[in-house]
User: Which sequence fits this backbone?
């Protein structure tokens, strides 16, 4: 009896203690988009895009989003042949996140040939090729064109229209870009590290710009992303026009304000992960409010509690004292399942979605069903004249094979669903698979021992609430 009590205590300690530890250490399950709120974006690639390019694009987008720091465990996955589904739980700056995943990121460094104040180019009103006659801006940017006119609009700088020359180097030459705060000058800046080829090209570009006097627009170098001027810093007056900026390292000074800090972080992010191999089109953007997510979570919890209460009442009515084994077992089962979700969320970034909550609710039925199969075998053996202790042992032998087979089939189904499905369905499949594994564990280590102890107690025989009473 002592060994059985110790075994039961260990299982309950794992379940209840694990959940308590998870709560105390803040290892509770991470909430997904539908429970926490956030933004979902569906991106569509051109027809016939190579699947390998989609995989590379999702990796770049994941790195971009993770560097924002405001998105908790983004879920970015390829769906079908040409679609990427992006889920951004808890996103705070929706537009920044959408820009990060949607921008193709053709990044280029280009010389500034001229500058016109205002937001209208000098070719406005003409029929110049590839020029908008109303704004005087270039319609379709070409990094190899001899001259293009692009708008440069910064909050702390007068709006300008810049005439740019062809690109000298592109984003592929940027090895690293890091936002830094210079304590001496109290300004934010972005430090660039270029590869060997990029270092030579950058030195030539900066040397050319340094040949012009201060305040001359031709001393600027424009950094352009997808036809938009991200920034256009001027070459420092200490740079020699004979050699330019050498060593493959440069610094772009931004400013002192919080906005400048954000701009420095965004610019560094763009420079590091500027080039997506696929030009995506944003097909849809869906925003889930935090209130709606909280309501969904509350509804799921209430549904689970109602389901648990209904199962408990039914089992008490049909199986009497045996039902107490299942009720305690369900609490241990649920605690272990939530603890696993919390640990997987901490280690692997797994999120708990509404589909996962549905899977957990279904798991209540799975565990209860296993106990019902066992209890029915016990009742059959008691009716055949065996003692309750003998019926418990024989019933386990007969029931375990059936339960193991059923859980194995269900587990295989969950694995296939996980492998073939995308998005929220994966959460349901994972919850279902974990539930089947825990069901076998709980049944083998807890239920058998608990029923065996119950069969040796006063609740085994005599009275309507006893095991014999349930079999009569």
Assistant:
């Amino acid at each position: 009896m002592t060994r059985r009590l110790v075994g039961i205590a260990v299982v309950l300690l794992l379940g209840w203690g694990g959940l308590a530890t998870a709560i105390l250490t803040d290892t509770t399950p991470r909430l997904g988009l539908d429970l926490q709120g956030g933004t979902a974006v569906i991106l569509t690639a051109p027809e016939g895009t190579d699947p390998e390019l989609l995989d590379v694009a999702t990796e770049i987008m994941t790195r971009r989003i993770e560097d924002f720091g405001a998105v908790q465990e983004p879920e970015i996955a390829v769906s079908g042949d040409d679609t990427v589904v992006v889920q951004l739980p808890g996103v705070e700056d929706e537009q920044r996140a959408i820009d990060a995943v949607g921008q193709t990121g053709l990044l280029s460094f280009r010389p500034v040939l001229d500058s016109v104040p205002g937001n209208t180019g000098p070719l406005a009103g003409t029929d110049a090729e590839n020029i908008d006659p109303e704004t005087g801006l270039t319609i379709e940017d070409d990094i190899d064109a001899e001259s293009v006119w692009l708008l440069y609009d910064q909050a702390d700088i007068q709006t300008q229209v810049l005439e740019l020359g062809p690109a000298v180097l592109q984003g592929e030459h940027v090895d690293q870009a890091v936002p830094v705060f210079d304590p001496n000058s109290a300004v934010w800046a972005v430090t660039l590290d270029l590869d060997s080829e990029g270092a030579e090209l950058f030195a030539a570009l900066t040397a050319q710009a340094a040949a012009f006097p201060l305040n001359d627009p031709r001393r600027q170098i424009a950094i352009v992303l997808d036809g938009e001027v991200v920034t256009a810093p001027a070459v420092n007056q200490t740079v020699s026009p004979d050699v330019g900026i050498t060593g493959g390292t440069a610094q772009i000074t931004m400013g002192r304000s919080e906005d400048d800090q954000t701009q420095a972080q965004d610019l560094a992010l763009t420079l590091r992960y500027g080039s997506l191999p696929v030009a995506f089109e944003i097909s849809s953007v869906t925003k889930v409010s935090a209130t709606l997510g909280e309501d969904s979570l509350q509804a799921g919890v209430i549904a689970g509690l109602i389901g648990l209460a209904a199962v408990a009442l039914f089992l008490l009515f049909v199986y009497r004292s045996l039902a107490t084994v299942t009720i305690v077992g369900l609490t241990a089962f649920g605690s272990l399942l939530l603890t696993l979700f919390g640990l997987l969320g901490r280690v692997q970034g797994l999120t708990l979605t509404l589909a996962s909550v549905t899977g957990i609710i279904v798991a209540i039925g799975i565990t209860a069903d296993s106990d019902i199969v066992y209890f029915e075998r016990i009742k059959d053996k008691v009716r055949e004249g065996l003692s309750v202790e003998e019926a418990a042992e024989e019933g386990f032998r007969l029931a375990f094979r059936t339960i193991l087979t059923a859980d194995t089939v269900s587990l295989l189904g969950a694995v296939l669903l996980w492998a073939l499905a995308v998005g929220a369905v994966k959460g349901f499949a994972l919850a279902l698979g974990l539930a089947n594994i825990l069901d076998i564990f709980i049944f083998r280590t807890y239920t058998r021992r608990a029923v065996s102890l119950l069969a040796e107690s006063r609740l085994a025989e005599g009275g309507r609430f006893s095991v014999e009473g349930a079999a009569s």
Remarks:
- The chain has a mean pLDDT of 82.
- The chain has three domains: 2-30+289-471, 38-102+282-287, 107-268.
- Residues 2-30+289-471 form a domain with the Multidrug efflux transporter AcrB transmembrane fold fold (CATH 1.20.1640.10).
